[in-house]
Amino acid sequence: MLILVLGATGYLGGHIAGGLRALPGARVFTGGRSPGADVPVDLASARPRDLAAALAALAPDAVVNCAGATGGDAVTLAEVNARGPAVLCAALREAAPEARLVHLGSAAEYGPGTPGRPVPESAATRPAGPYGATKLAGTVAVTASGLDAVVLRVGNPVGPGAPATGLPGRVAGLLAGAGRDADAVLRLGDLSAHRDFVDVRDVARAVCSAVTAPGPLPPVLNIGGGAAVPVRDLVRVLARVAGFRGRVVEAGTGSARSAQVSWQCSDITAAGDVLGWRPAHSLDDSLTALWAAGSAGRPRGPEEVAAR
Prior knowledge:
The chain has helices at residues 11-21, 48-58, 74-95, 130-143, 167-178, 200-212, 231-242, 256-260, 269-275, 283-293, and strands spanning 2-6, 27-32, 39-40, 62-65, 100-106, 148-154, 156-158, 185-188, 194-195, 197-199, 220-223, 229-230, 247-250. The chain contains ten helices and 13 strands. It is 38% helix and 17% strand. The radius of gyration is 19 Å and the shape is globular. α1 packs across α6, α2 packs across α3 (74-95) and α3 (74-95) packs parallel to α4. The longest helix is centred in the first third of the chain and has 22 residues, at 74-95. By secondary structure, it is an alpha/beta fold. Pfam families: Epimerase (PF01370). This is Putative NDP-hexose 4-ketoreductase.
């Protein structure tokens, strides 16, 4: 099986490409803006016909799109998260209409959740900001494409290699700087929001299952940890894993998104039924691996994607 992974230099993409390479008989090629990509392409600006030519030459059996933007202004987010998937779908329809497309969406597409009610794929989508709105536009482009495609709506990824652009990686970097000084004070914003954390290695397993599953798949599947975890608990566990002896102080209001989306949890029943997938790593496992990897703050490639 020949598999093309777009955005393989990012946090999720790197783990996903590694997991796919371990599949028996798989040949994995990479695509993106990074030097050395097998298929040089920038989905934010590529023309469908040019990408179609590259896809026709490669003739992939499956394409996994991990490319996306988590930050930047609304124009940047729209170019990468909305236009990019639309261009990819147009190119696939022309050059490789039989290939399976696995596209990474985001739980942010759902918007604010109701405490105590995990969100199923059938729930209304009410994104609270440009990131979720542009990811939703990308999902619509994929699900309306007529291709053999599935969108995996990923929760908040955590685990080894987590970048400093996300909360787990940022907190790990702060803890590394604080050391084990009992007088150290870690000042963070409001940590009362609840998030659905999922290990990046479990996300990679879900993608492998989606690539190889027989027959057509549902248009959207939730991939998360299946529980709403207080962000405060994540910080507490990571501090314990790091051996931090100081104090954590919540000062300020935190991020705007935390204020807009105070509770988030995905119903992952369908992924279990369709893919036989369940998360295998606990939050403790994920944070222990993050700390052991020592990669908080390490620069990531230009294709980095995270579901936030």
